[in-house]
Amino acid sequence: MIRDDIKAAQVAAMKAGDKESRAAISLIQAAIKNRDIELRTGTAPADDDMVVIEVLQKMVKQRRESIAMYEQGGRQELADQEKAEVAVIERFLPQTLTEDETKAAIEAIKAEIGASGMKDMGRVMAELKARHAAVLDMSKASGLVKAALA
Fold first, then answer.
1. Which of 42, 66, 90 finishes a domain?
2. Residue 126 sits in which domain range?
């Protein structure tokens, strides 16, 4: 499980005296704990790793947006700190699909559901997310789906 990997990395970072990694992993654990608290009101998640992956993907997205803003504002030291956090977070994410693999998955779904134009984009995206959300950057996939349906 990804949670166990994160806990083991936290211990390893503490023993190694790696303050940057330890701080980033603490942020990850706090975000996961917050997500767990949010989910208490609903039903228990079927797949715990999917919950953790969603949290990690959201954290990476937030940090990439921050990096862009810091670089626009001329705050390179803050952008570098965010990049270091992204590197730590991405250690726990599964390997994402390549662009060619993503295109192949889109074509398979497109053929399977009979998508023919832009009106079917929502259906294709929903199916793509259902099947490959853990190993796919949905923002990049959106552009590929548009290109495939155009």
1. 90
2. 99-149
